[in-house]
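re: that chain from earlier
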Amino acid sequence: MTSGGFILEIGGRRLPLGEPRMVVGRDAGCDVVIEDPSVSSLHAHFQREEDGTWLLIDENSLNGTLLGGLRMRPGIPRLVTAGAEIRFGTVTAKVRLQIPVTAGVSTVDSAMAILQALDPSERGPSVHVVEGKHIGREILLHMDETAVVGRSPKADIVILDEAVSLRHLEVRRTPAGVLVRDVGSRHGTELAGRRLPLDDWSVWEPGLCLSLARSVVVLMLEPERTVDDIAVMSNPMVPKRPEPQPEQPEAPIPDADVSPPVASTRPQQADSAPMVPRPAPVETPHQHPPSSINALAWGGAIVFVLTAVALVWLLRG
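^ sequence. v structure.
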């Protein structure tokens, strides 16, 4: 497991787990005070082991403690892993890994140093026993390989508990994620409090706990996928490393001894075309405008009227 201390994120606070024993509860004298009615006065406590690992023990709280989505049995220690989600009553807390930072070295570089110190065979998602008499056992999951958990000596993770079947469950790592299935155990398997169907693959999300009788196992993420988040959580002022961008091809540089073509400044002359004589204009007869025609009509009418009047006057005389 990756080395480093833990930080407990709860209610907007970030509290390092430093003392060998840290009590969580509603009482003002607790190391981690949670002022919520669903939290007991003395709810649970963290306990640091000699090897640096941390255990969580529920103190018979009224509303219980969930670690990895699975309710804890009072007084039974469960191993705390990086990224684990804990629920005290109805209050949720998150466990983060704190990267020890060397003076003059950024948090991201410190996280990368821890990652690079891992043996290549230790990289990848892994299954850890976090509760029971075999606490601390673990196995690395290899791509497209199936690991067996059970009581059989041939199992990949052996759990010597009479309530655990010889071949209790199978775990398989795929490109899409980690799958788990109960292969016909007598007492069944629970994933985050939900009973698994028999012989049917289910998705196992990282951080969730599986219960096999009196033992509990948890799936942990591979370090490569969490190192940036670990570093940023340890120091929010440190930005994540930028994602590598594909290299852009450089534009070709023209040779120095080759001059680019120079455009001519002389105007381009149009090709000469044979002269075509213009057609002679066609004369059209003169047409009077409409106003002239109207004037002539009125004049003729007046002359006709005057002539008729004169003729009538002569006849009467």
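Confidence is low (pLDDT under 50) at residues 223-251, 253-274.
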